[in-house]
Amino acid sequence: MIEFLKAILFGVVEGITEWLPISSTGHLILLNEFVNLNVRDEFFSMFEVVIQLGAILAVVVLFWNQLWPFSKKEKYYIKQDTFMMWIKIIVACLPAAIIGILFDDVIEDLFYNYQVIALALIVFGIAFIIIENYNHKRKPHINSLTEITFNAAIIIGLFQLIAAVFPGTSRSGATILGAILIGVSRSVAAEFTFFLAVPVMFGASLLKLVKYGLPATGMEVIILLTGMIVAFVVSVIVIKFLMSYIKKHDFKIFGWYRIVLGILVLLFFGLIK
Known about the structure:
273 residues; mainly alpha; 76% helix; membrane
């Protein structure tokens, strides 16, 4: 029962932090320091990635009409704008996919530690504040998904690569930051980030399942399914909140949160632990 409750907590944290630009991987790693799941190390390495499938399902459900490229009402049964959007998504995902496949073990060994997580939290927190101040009087020139060019998709993909390498960066945070920087509106930047997550997280989950295998015990299956279901429910709520929030607010509050959390992480692990 205790492990079941812990899985619920991990699902809640995943559902919140996956879509807010504050780093889900960083929060899950830190949470495991305080609420340690009584499971094998191999299972937890798989769990902290595969739990994201629940969050991804929330995007698929909420944005199904925008994501599904086929329609009987369209010529050749293909929605051309949606089809082109998927090509741009694939282009944007290529840098992170290539690096992830080739250097997954190296990245995990080198950068999955509290120093990197704290530094990434602080640096990108500062970046959010600076870029939002810089964009305060600028008007975005990309105000719809169809206006995102292949060049813009590649640039956003390179920002996503940073998050793929450095835990604590936040995949959503990095891609939203990159998109805003090149003139994409906040709402479009958020939507494109949500859609980018679908192939990225499915691919990352598949990579972890191939590496570590399926859950070996009944308890591990229950823990994984519980985390995914809770992450799905919480993600639906958080995505709706975020899309409403960014219509009237900027992302600076998340920048300040990241900075404070990064400092607390350094203090806790550097001085207390």
